[in-house]
Amino acid sequence: MAAQSSPNANRKQILRVIFISLLLDLISFTFILPLFPKLLEFYRNLESSQASSSLLSRILDGLNTYKRSFSRPISDRYDIVLLGGALGSLFSFLQAIASPIIGRLSDKHGRRTALLWSMAGNIASVALWVAATDFRTFLASRVVGGLSEGNVQLATAMAADISDEKQRGATMALVGACFSIAFTFGPALGAALANIETVVANPFATAAGFSLFLIVVETAYLYLYLPETLPSSRPAETSNGHTSKNTPPTTRSNTTRTNSHALLNFTHFIFILHFSGMEFSLPFMTYDLFGYTSSQTGKLLGFMGLIASILQGTVTRRLHPLRVVQLGIVACAASFFLLGRLTTETGLWMAASLLAITSATVVTGLNSLSSFESGAGERGGKLGNHRSWVGSVSWTVDILYSILVGRTRNSVLKSDISNRKEADQLLIQSFEATIIGPSPSRNAQDHRNHAQF
């Protein structure tokens, strides 16, 4: 077990432990991203011949009912896209519930204890994926993973514990660099491992097994080398040479702050409202528009990670967090502009470059700003609340989208447009563009029709 030592005296050592463990965790986490389309296609084909009472069959029936609500049929090829979006929303929603709880527990019982319990849940989640020979087991792995995923927020809290305000931006950039490096290597490695079939009943067991290995190694590494960083949980040296618990720090410093947590969380919400799920849904877009394989998607995500890691090590760590956020917002708007007019692979890679800039800047900057507003004794809970907005947004967007589509459809049917069939067709095209982006085969006349509509 790691010795209880002062984090200020061993800041570099603790940062090294945080960096290595978080890197292992995120590489393991990104294994599955390029595999999702083929993985869900595998389970759909596997259970298509089974009884209609299977869980996946009932979910697909629900999707088909939703699709039949439109006057023009939607192709079954969208089932994988919709199912992937639903699973991503479920994972994020569960993470949104768990993040504040994990954060508050870390404030009460210590970061190290909370992190080790979170790792136990992660091990259980990936173990279920290894054993997932049916969709029900795979779904259970996502549920367990969503409820136990606290590594990132706890790593952020620990990094803030051992950094003063002058060091905070560079420290948060180091945490962000873990994401970038993981996206550089993780998806490509996951796609490569998926080509190695070791279990016939689960073609993705090799990738899942290596992911489990990384998680177990990370847990052992944390148990052996990570000290407690929460000031109120570290023993302090007394005048007689004995150790005693530090008195809990005040939950809030007397320094007047510019930004409230509510403002930062709302800003985070507005950003994620437009950015949420892009990295998750990008494999589905490339799969549907350009027929990308898992390997090709892994290369694209790796390219994004490489750009983001370079930016994290150069630009992000040197700029003020507010400037970092502003840079990322501009890049995000430009990337969405390109994605809205996507017709070629060159455009896709240009948009991916801008998305990489966004990934390297906005969330890292907002995390830094949020950590400035937290005392040591409340940092876990505050950062947990801040992170929970990331998860809850995906869920909220799905609900709001369904409502807006329903209302738009009713408005179209009640409008003065004489050709109701044309109106429904335009609505379906808008729906398709929102889910997977515009089709390369769509011609200029389609775009003019959308503008008129």
TrEMBL record:
GO MF annotation: an example: transmembrane transporter activity
Transmembrane segments: 14-36, 80-102, 172-192, 204-226, 262-285, 297-315, 322-342, 348-369
Region (Disordered): 234-257
InterPro entries: MFS (IPR011701), MFS_dom (IPR020846), MFS_trans_sf (IPR036259)
PROSITE patterns: MFS (PS50850)
Keyword Membrane: yes
Main location: membrane
Pfam families in alphabetical order: MFS_1 (PF07690)
Major facilitator superfamily (MFS) profile domain location: 14-453
Protein name: Major facilitator superfamily (MFS) profile domain-containing protein
Source organism of this protein record: Ramalina farinacea
